Amino acid sequence: MPVLNGLGLNLNASNTQAAGAGLADNFDTFLTLLTEQLKNQDPLSPLDSNEFVGQLVQFSGVEQQIAQNRNLESLINLNAASSATSAVGFIGKEVDVLGSRVDLQNGSAKWTYTSANDADSVTILVKDTNGKIVFQTQGQTGAGNQSFTWDGRDNAGTQLADGAYDLEVSALDTSGNLVSTSVSTTQVITGADFSGSEPALLVGNTRLAFSDILAVRERAPLAI
Question: Where would I find the beta strands (DSSP E) of 82-193?
């Protein structure tokens, strides 16, 4: 089932209302003190009205700042809700993700690697989660996207257990210089996570950042 973690969307109650209430109380107190001072001032030495005007201006400025903060919080909440809606829309979709880790399932794992230019040789290494090389072979040398599917067997032909594996691709040109490569995988989004500062997508228990997603598409219907 799709997973929605932290559905509160981090929309916690802000301190803006408390600040507004505190300002109102302070303003009422200020007016009370001002009234008492005016009632009890020395007629021969009246209070300086400029000071009271300055204080009123300060109160007005603080009130405007609190109103701006309240509006800003509203915009942030709307943006968070929009991001959450967008993240939920990914559930069930098939995505191409920048990264080398994929799960071997039922003896099959698939990656896509991309070479910036044609290479003279391409070495493909499959590693387990401890970084141990479990399979090595030669890959396609052409520039652009190349697919690599692994049947889960090591170089001795032993079938390895299902689980997470990484792909490492090393490409060399005719001069022995490294050719730039990248690795991506195809995953199915199973959930969305809102517990962090930014929404993220889930594949099982693995979090995916939106910045790592290269492409999104509907899943192909299962063959009958």
Answer: 94-98, 101-104, 109-115, 121-127, 133-138, 144-150, 163-172, 178-179, 181-188, 191-193
